[in-house]
């Protein structure tokens, strides 16, 4: 398939975009900047693309060696059973991973399942909320 501008991808365009794929990688960034993800079937991905899916909060409780932090976060700890966060695929983040047989990749944004707001420990959510604050003051940001 010809390359598609990720900003133009919609839930409705996903079946055509992924017509030759069987699996999709979904990943989020943890507090150490490590990409943590899972590989799901295309059928599963299409069923959760709009509404999101549960993703274990331990992603924000592990260090870079996959050991839990001694001082646990309120959103990710043994007491709350490392409950699921809501992970929403960011369709505009679509890429293919050439070194993994060109598997499609979508980054996710982690939301609090109760409030539907970005969680404070999510780097993408943090940047997004800070950009909103800047916008509220009449400013914007550019990078790259």
Automatic annotation (TrEMBL):
UniProt-recorded Gene Ontology molecular function terms: ATP binding; glutamine synthetase activity
* Family, per entry: Belongs to the glutamine synthetase family.
InterPro entries linked to this entry:
Gln_synt_N, Gln_synt_N_sf
GO:BP terms for this protein? glutamine biosynthetic process
Q: Does the keyword Transferase apply?
A: no
Membrane-spanning parts? 45-62
Q: Which organism is it from?
A: Fusarium heterosporum
Question: What keywords does the record list, in alphabetical order?
Answer: ATP-binding, Ligase, Membrane, Nucleotide-binding, Transmembrane, Transmembrane helix
Under the heading Gene3D superfamilies, the entry gives: Glutamine synthetase, N-terminal domain (3.10.20.70)
Q: Say yes or no: keyword S-adenosyl-L-methionine present.
A: no
* Domain GS beta-grasp, first and last residues per copy: 19-115
Protein's name according to its UniProt entry: Glutamine synthetase
């Amino acid at each position: 398939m010809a390359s598609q501008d990720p900003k133009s991808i919609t839930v409705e365009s996903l079946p055509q975009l992924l017509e030759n794929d069987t699996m999709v990688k979904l990943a989020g960034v943890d507090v150490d900047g490590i990409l943590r993800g899972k590989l799901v079937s295309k059928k599963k991905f299409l069923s959760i693309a709009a509404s999101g899916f549960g993703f274990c909060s331990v992603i924000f409780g592990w260090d870079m060696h996959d050991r839990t932090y001694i001082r646990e976060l309120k959103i990710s700890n043994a007491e709350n059973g490392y409950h699921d966060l809501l992970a929403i695929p960011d369709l505009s983040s679509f890429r293919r991973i050439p070194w993994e047989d060109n598997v499609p990749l979508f980054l996710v944004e982690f939301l609090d399942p109760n409030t539907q707001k970005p969680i404070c420990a999510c780097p993408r959510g943090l940047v997004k909320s800070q950009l909103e604050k800047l916008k509220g003051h009449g400013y914007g940001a550019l990078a790259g």
